[in-house]
Amino acid sequence: MSPDAGMRAARLAALAAGAAAMGTTSRRSDAQAEARAADPSNSSVTKDPRGGAVTFVPAPPPAAHPGAKLAFVQVLTRHGDRTSINPLPNETREQWRSLLLSEEEQAALALNAAPSPANPALLDARRVDADGEDISWHGQLTKQGLEQLVHTGSALQTWLAATDLGLPLSRADALKSAAVKIRSTGTRRTVQSAQAMMFGLYPPVSENRDENRDAFGGAFGGDGVRKGDAVSERPRAEPANSGVKSFPFPIEVRDRFRESMFPNPGMACARQTELMRALDGDVLVQDAEARAWESEALSAVRAEVHERNVLKRRREKERRREKEKAAEMAEAVEAPSDGASDAETNRGEGESSVASVAEPSVFTKHADGKRSSTRLDRNASSRLPSATSVWEPLQARLNHGLALPRGVTSRDVARIREAAEVRYVNRATNAEGAALAGGRLLRELAEESHEVVVASAARGGEGDTSVSRVGKKSLKLSVFSGHDSSILALLAVLGAFPGEWPPVASTVLVETWLVDERGGDGARVPGVGRPHWSERTISIASSSSSTTKERDVLASDEGGSRSAFHEKRGEKETKAMVRVLFNGAVLPLAGCAGQEDAKKGGLCSLAAFREMARRRDPEDYKKACQPREQRARL
Q: What would the pLDDT profile of 479-489 be if each residue is shown by its tens digit?
């Protein structure tokens, strides 16, 4: 057995044992909690043992580099608490009504941050399904979820204001300097979570204090400060009469087929779907799910969900047959067909698996655009729902204190959650699948960090003055608002998935630091040393008395393009280094050459991080996503 295969088997066996033991990953002793607080390599976040939200807590600065300067921060967040995406058969909007955001609350959020360009095509934009049922409330951010992300934004601002990052304290300055960039996947809950986070980061202030107090149900004071927050820790908001015209922070929402944050296999990557279905058939996954169904209450819920799903499939099949029959009759009389739109014919896994928990469609779309049920599709009609699809609505209800189905307890929810975790650990240990799911996002993060560092070195009017380069100069914080699947994919491609499902409001931080390579006596700092020139990203010297500056632009071996800046002042030299944290815990990055021990800070060079990202991002994503048989024929 290869070392990788042995490690994979060991991780799966350990997680399976945890699922069998029930709750061992959720219940931790006080001694363990104290150890996490003392050791930055362990998470010290506050976690709901029932699987609910986590609070944002940063890690201490790198212990091995007391003079390190924080240069850039990227944060990937999971949205806040939401309603069920695939509700239980007897679940209704009325049960959630008091927890949903009001139109006034949604409008208040949009004043502070909004998609740009406006009105993007969102995956959950439909208000009714094919049966005419109201689905506008499915998978939507709740008041509780809004408060969680406001708190994340507030805590983020408190942390960053205490560092030397240089993030503007006022909203107006942040907008003017383009210090903050925001991106969201194309769902309402992630867009609104990004808006809520920006509300916490830069709370707006109105002349009417009552408007501020009432904007979110009285949760905030007239000065935009959340009740219980220390005013001294909050950024200074712009007074309404300051003369500064207020614009919302722009939120980029990409087309779903270009979205690197949303590794949805049914949307654009057939090979990923192929791999996931094969991996989900592994014995360890099946055994974990079987243990979940030993609960009679969970088994009963599963049966009800399955019955509902079968009926919906039958109705879908009947509608499809009627459309095909009408199309054939139209062709017979040489009349133009009003065939179904792409949105109707291509929903299948793409539209419905916004939660990444959908079951396959019963139809196969052929090259001629027609659909027919196949033997495999007919078998899908008898396939029972997975643990993930049953757990999702149960966890959403538990998080909001709503009643669970008869006989189901919070212990049952923990049991079925652990079965879902076994499934996703199994997927995460597959290198090909991890690269397809998270490789593009990892590469994007690494390249953005590199561009910011290089642009910062080109200050003072020298170097590239293109719009993109100038914009990167002032960028301090880059926010990515995504899903559990976004975080799972990134942790998987990093080889650092801890085995627990990312709770709502989870964060992955990528911190870029400028580290002094010389100690106080001028000697090289152990563990940093002088790297080969090709690994050098940036070297900066800082001396208050020095006015001289030397910059050497290094050319790469291939093509001679600019690859890095080397800068000296006085006798100090610094280079860019990176670390990644999940919910406050420093992650080990096995593929990042030369990474320091987590207790020392867990830094590795930005150059090594970029190289790791390059290796793990498929060179030709479109080709890599082709099914195995199709690639074999090429």
A: 999 999 999 99
